[in-house]
Amino acid sequence: MSEVQFGLAIVATINAAIRFSVPITLGSLCGLLGERSGIVNIGIEGMMLMSAFTGFMTNVLLSRPEIDPALQAGPVRLTLALAVALLTGAAMGLLHGLLSIQYKINQIISGTVLNILALGLTGYFYQREAPTLGKLPNLINNPWSRADSIELSLADNFTFYLPYDIGRILFDKDLITYLSFVLVFVIGWALYHTTWGLRTRSIGENPRAADTLGIDVYRLQYTNLILGGMLAGMAGAFLTLAAVGLFEQGMTTGRGFIALAVMIFGNWKPSGALKGSLLFGFAMALQNQLQLFGINFPHQLVGMLPYILTIVVLAGFVGRAQPPAFAGKAYEQE
Predict the structure, then answer these.
(1) To the nearest 10°, the Cα dihedral for 197, 228, 205, 273?
(2) Residue 69: predicted pLDDT
(3) Are 217 and 333 contacting, i.e. CB atoms less than 8 angstroms apart?
(4) Residues 6 or more apart in contact with residue 315 via CB below 8 angstroms
(5) Which of 115, 124, 166, 235 is 20 to 30 A from 152 (CA-CA)?
(6) How do residues 159-176 score in pLDDT, each as one tens digit?
(7) Facing residues of 158 across strands?
(8) At what angle do helices 3-36 and 195-205 cross, to 10 degrees?
(9) In contact, 40 and 112? CB cutoff 8 Å
(10) Which DSSP category does 174 fall into?
(11) Is the distance from CB of 232 to CB of 26 less than 8 angstroms?
């Protein structure tokens, strides 16, 4: 392998790792908001899958010839599709809240219901090869004006060049990718520097004490589950509106459960979740990129890497990690 080819393979691997890490990052943030509020959410997989489906089908419906051209315009069509995916995730979060908070159903069973519901509904209404007018574009479309650099024009008379490799890593991404990294820092800051964050952490540790101080425990739990559902909805939208542009049955392929492992690996902190997501994203990227390095390895074993890593993380960190004290318990208000 030449030096140029090796450099291209490195860039491709980094970009693939980032792309694979996005839904895991958003899913782990979803689980984090729930467990910090005392609600275990293993329904992230179902939330992601249902949102991926509804976002994609909205894109399909708005791509039909009889639809008003104003709605078919890329920004409008894709914004509406993304909004539907977010609302779907919010609705799934609300359903999880109703089952686990209102009716005191075991939270593990409630999350399992979401996963089965999403798998059944998306499988029943699945349409193979449904056409659309396109997916979310990258920040800069086809910016490579020279072989060794990327030309960026911020104004008519202001143009500068970035090295090709750095430019591809920084700018060859879609809007949801950038939002996911921004949300990590926003949620991390809010969790430790705002009233909402203090109250969220308090009800996850001792809801009775928080209740005596006048905090509405149930309302905050519902709020955080809905917000978490929207994050899972964004993860699903990323799969069908940005990464792939198509919907396939069961296309989340365990990402929701990997997100839970990442949340534990990150010790229920957004920054830790981001680090874990990038690690898992790199493991998933190796499935497709090893051949670029000239390494011939059975693809079945390579495909097992993310899931083996999940088992290792769970085996190595579950016993040592300290979850919120009240996570998984139904709170009874006196």
Answers:
(1) -80
(2) 84
(3) yes
(4) none
(5) 235
(6) 545 566 676 777 778 899
(7) 155
(8) 70
(9) no
(10) B
(11) yes
